[in-house]
Design brief:
Blueprint lengths: L2 H21 L2 H16 L4 E3 L1 H22 L4 H20 L7 E3 L4 E4 L4 H22 L7 H38 L1
Antiparallel strand pairs: 1-3, 2-3
Helix pairs in contact: 2-5, 3-5, 3-6, 4-6, 5-6
């Protein structure tokens, strides 16, 4: 490729990217601001009830599942990929000790959840994949029947969901173990 061809390709890419951003509905940017806000709030240590601490992982997994179903309703292979990725990410996250720094505060009946940038990265990752999949489907509607695309998106959604769920399960486990051991005394 010549320098002129490379420059022309770069210009076309920039124009396409600007077109995508301009044609994105405004509510998507408000949603992005909201998820960033939720993610940033997770960077500070906080006291959480068990219900509140497990709500975000469950909601994110449900949204991920809905994303796969809504995009690939006719392709059950996408759901299989989602489920396989959830299980794999859940197992790997548990093996890596996700949530091991969470503590139960018996006197307050709350969890002490250390601050982490991981939830923000997970939320943004899921948002980017959903945004990218929808852009690709808007540009190439035939992708909704492409098995490789369906499996790839389903797997990516599932992987993020598995990590979210591992965090939620770790918090639930810490609370239940602490409550069980305090009852033994």
């Amino acid at each position: 490729m010549s320098v002129i061809e490379i420059s022309s390709l770069r210009i076309r890419t920039i124009i396409m990217f600007i077109g995508i951003l301009q044609n994105t509905p405004h509510w998507v940017w408000w949603l992005l601001a909201a998820v960033i806000s939720v993610g940033v709030s997770q960077t500070q240590p906080r006291h959480r009830t068990l219900r509140a601490a497990t709500a975000i992982p469950i909601v994110m997994a449900a949204l991920s599942f809905y994303g796969v179903v809504s995009l690939f309703a006719a392709q059950s292979i996408a759901l299989v990929a989602w489920a396989a990725a959830v299980l794999a990410a859940l197992r790997m996250s548990q093996a890596a000790g996700v949530g091991s720094k969470v503590r139960w505060l018996a006197a307050e009946q709350r969890l002490l959840v250390p601050g982490s940038w991981v939830p923000l990265m997970l939320i943004l990752g899921l948002f980017i994949i959903k945004f990218g999949a929808n852009v690709m489907l808007a540009m190439h509607p035939d992708l909704n029947v492409d098995k490789l695309f369906a499996v790839s998106v389903g797997f990516a959604y599932g992987a993020f969901s598995g990590i979210f769920l591992a965090r939620g399960l770790a918090m639930w486990r810490v609370a239940r173990q602490a409550q069980s051991s305090s009852m033994a005394y």
